[in-house]
Amino acid sequence: MTTETSTGLPQADVAVVRELATRLAEIAALPVQQERIREWQALNDLRPERAMAMIDEVPWHELSRPGVLAAEELAVVSTHPFTRELEARLRRELYRWRHMRVDMVVRPYLDFGKAIRTTGWGLEIQEATLDQGEGNIVQSHSYSDQLANPEDIEKFREPELWLDETANAAIEARAHECLDGIMGVRMQGWHGFEGNQLAYCLWDDIEQFRGTEPILMDFMDRPEHLHNIARRYLEVRMAELDQLEAKGLLGYDQDRIHCTGAQTTQLPAPGFDPDRVRAKDVWICGRSQLFVSVGQATFDEFIPDYYAPYYARYGLAQFGCCEPLHGRIDSVRRIPNVRKISISPWAKVDIAAEKIGPDYVYSRKPNPAMVAMDQWVPGMAERDFDDVLAATRANGCPVEFTLKDISTARSDPQRLWDWCAIAERKTRG
């Protein structure tokens, strides 16, 4: 009697995954999912019904440790790499629904990334890293400067992309074997549902090829060198996007963009073909975190003109991450198709709301340090919601909250559950 399926997966593993998928499919069928989709669409279409909230970038390594409250819900028991990854994904979605639901949406299908290969941009990150604890994906980085000289810019190459048909077929076959009759399977090109593949982060990327200090020095000493780097980066990314469109390697129908709900009635664009997705059918996200260290004139010189051509090709866009953008809103307005602007823990809430008004989604990112302190103080979360909601209501801003970048909750998941309960009460009050 064989113990493996036709695709080489252990039958016991498949049984585990199918049982979890059945539970998730039951949740996906609940009427509340359509209600949440409608509410996200209203927010992202700039006609909000209420504030929305999510939690993302959770420290799963910590929540799944033996002895942590509810860790058994995350314990993976299958053995094959494919089913282990899928099982972990399903368990996390079920965990989120049970404990950290807020405004999450569960769809009756799962997306799987196509096996897309690339030759890359001609540069590989050279770095030293310092781990922040076993299982924690957060690291400290020290980068080598590979673009110190003008001739180094020639290292940037336009990539070649292609679909690995054999590997892709294997992924799809295993996905169907695990989910057929329970949930749908969607094979997706570059999409953003995992890893934010659809992102344009010019200076964050260049920082990984140079380090921070050389760039900051060049702002003063060699600005033209930085302009040359930026121009070449934009050329490479535009050529890459040309291939993604021409070869049908873009994904579609995103559920999230940069850890926030992406549902909207404004995408895809007319003429949409799921086999030949265009940039104008989807969201793009981006940021410029390095520019927290520079003045307004430098921001204006090095950001809008190098983001605008790329963003112009997409349907909708999100801009910003951890950098405080309250003083940069007028500059961000020069970038086309922006729909969401990130308002980080270091931004001034009132100024950002006044500058954004009803024109963009005010995408608030509360400080994750509140769940990492020695003592959890729920009142800090309450005050953050109150302050932001007061400012955005006064200025007519569509608003969403995303607690993210959570490197630790001090092995106390109740803190995350409490934040979600507070978020539900505040955004629906």
Observed structural traits:
two-stranded parallel ribbon; seven-stranded parallel beta sheet; single chain; TIM Barrel; alpha/beta
Largest sheet: 7 strands, parallel
Using the CA coordinates, give the radius of gyration.
22 Å
Averaged pLDDT: 95
Reading the helices and strands in chain order gives HHEHHEEEEEHEEHHHEEEHHEHEHEHEH
Low-confidence blocks of residues: none
Overall form: globular
Major β-sheet strand ordering? 1-15-14-13-12-11-8
Task: Kindly describe this structure.
With 429 residues, the chain is an alpha/beta fold. Helices cover 40% and strands 14% of the residues. The protein is built from 14 helices and 15 strands. The strands form 5 sheets. The protein has a 7-stranded parallel β-sheet, sandwiched between helices. The protein has a two-stranded parallel sheet with strand order 2-7. The model has no long low-confidence stretch (mean pLDDT 95). The chain has a domain of 299 residues: TIM Barrel (Alpha-Beta Barrel). The chain is globular and about 65 Å long.
Question: Could you give the topology of this structure?
Answer:
Blueprint: H1 11-28, H2 32-44, E1 52-55, H3 60-63, H4 81-99, E2 109-113, E3 116-118, E4 127-131, E5 139-143, E6 161-163, H5 165-179, E7 184-188, E8 199-200, H6 202-210, H7 212-221, H8 223-246, E9 256-257, E10 260-261, E11 283-286, H9 296-302, H10 304-311, E12 316-319, H11 329-332, E13 338-343, H12 349-356, E14 361-364, H13 378-395, E15 399-403, H14 413-427
Parallel strand pairs: 1-15, 2-7, 8-11, 11-12, 12-13, 13-14, 14-15
Antiparallel strand pairs: 3-6, 4-5, 9-10
Helix pairs in contact: 1-4, 7-8, 8-10, 12-13, 13-14
